[in-house]
Design brief:
By secondary structure, chain A is mainly alpha-helical. Helix content of chain A is 79%, strand content 1%. The chains are: A mainly alpha, B mainly alpha. Chain A: Belongs to the binding-protein-dependent transport system permease family.
Amino acid sequence: MAVLRQAGKRLVQAVPVLFGVVAVNFLLMQAAPGDLADVLAGEQGAATPEMMAELRARFGLDQPVWVQFAHYLGNLLTGDFGYSHRLGLPVLTLILERLPATLLLMLPAVFLAAGSGMVLGGWAARRAGTWLDGLISVGVLIAYATPLFWAGLMAIVVFAVQLQWLPVGGMRDPSAAYTGLAMAGDVARHMVLPVCSLALFYAALYARLMRASMLSALQQDYIRTARAKGLSPFQVEAVHAGRNALLPVLTMVGLQAGSLIGGAVLVETVFSWPGLGRLAFDAILRRDLNLLLGIVLVSSMTVILVNFVVDLLYGLADPRVRAA
Amino acid sequence: MRRVARLLLRPRALVGLLLVVGLGAMALGAPWIFPDDPMDMVGSPSMWPGQEEGFWLGTDLMGRDIAAGVFHGARVSLLVGLSAAGIALLLGTAVGAMAGFWGGAADSVLMRFTEVFQTMPPFLFTIAVVAVLGPSIGNVIFAIGITSWPAVARLARGEVMAVRRRDFVDAAICCGTPASGLLLRHVLPNALSPIIVTASVLMATAMLTEAGLSFLGLSDPNLVSWGSMIGGGREALRTHWYMAAIPGVALALAVLGLNLLGDVLDDVMDPRRGA
């Protein structure tokens, strides 16, 4: 019950933030040189001043800014995220079409990064000060400094071009018409490099965090108690210390959701992955601002949603949060 | 002093300092070492590193000297890193300090405002700002600065709130110090060191963001940048992978140096460490 009440409170808090995001988005749209009428006129080649005025009146562009903002807000509330005049489709349709591919990339990347980061960081903390700790730390430092799109390119050179183990890019093999399980296998093969490139930086981040968090957890009194009780090292380290060391990492996963979307834009561009990021890149190339800002808005909403879920998980993992 | 020297002489710190000094030297020395425009075609295209005298890092698809590009790219990277981090520090400290100093309603409003900027995915937001304003170096700096201050604001708020409760602040209030003097002369100077420590990591992040932007083609078309070099090298990835590899190594080393420097600053500022 307390968890639900907490969740409700968080949802209410998210409303002003969402409103702010919409306002910033609107501001960006206003700041862009030229308006919709210019874009449409440009597409048709030429337009008389009368035609421009008529277009502006039809789209409400001759109204005061606050009326336009109210109009924009009303549209969003009814699920109308604007129209991509370059692609001739509603922005929301385009986004929803590409969202699954991005999720297919991001979710495994998060799990891979969090999983490997926690294992490596926890391991380094248990062996703090040994050569193993040093090795993991150096690896983490390097992975943390490597731009992920560049890591992706280098992975293509090694694994796709030289060794030819994995495909260069795309989501499936265009020359073969697989179905069922064979198709899933094909997609999985195409996923390996992009998922690993995206996960690399975050794995380093989580490993760093987990090491510090685990080191402090291992010094707590209840760990000494657990050891004194004669529990196995695995029980003590993975269950007793691990569970408490997990919380900062969980918070970080929520905080990094937005940054992960940014990483996906680059990785999708590198691997020609047909997701939201690639759509954003194409929108930049075509100067399709409606679409680009629509993607920014949907991603911001995703971030709010992810943080909401993380909050709920936090409540489940730590009883003290529930009480507060 | 002994403590600082001991902290600076550790291998990690030395590597970090060396890399950052190297980056600075490359950026400052580029106009003397490679006085010609790095965008000019100077040799035959697609020469591997060391293949011909005078082009020790080879040439790219357009016959431009990669070594010259790397040196001049360091200038752009450093300029963007320094200025964007500067903007983020100023904005973040201002917002965070006001929120922490006043508290109450001002705090809630400013923190909601910060949350808005924290919610929008930073890289996408930067892309949108540059796409709207146009890809000039000034706009790139502005876009990165305006999207990377929320973390600084949160940190500054926490520090200011902690310092605000200390006794010497009460003493200053009793002396009749006006609020502005209280914040600027008494609270902020004592809250600043953890904020300054973040500067080098902010710079590293800004440089990575700049590289990502220019990789996507959102950079000043008249300037060489490491990201645009990687983007250009991508065209020849199958046959001439060194074109993308070399500027990437330069970028990774620069970011590594700044991250290590950040750790060192953190240690130096914390009197409990290395004693």
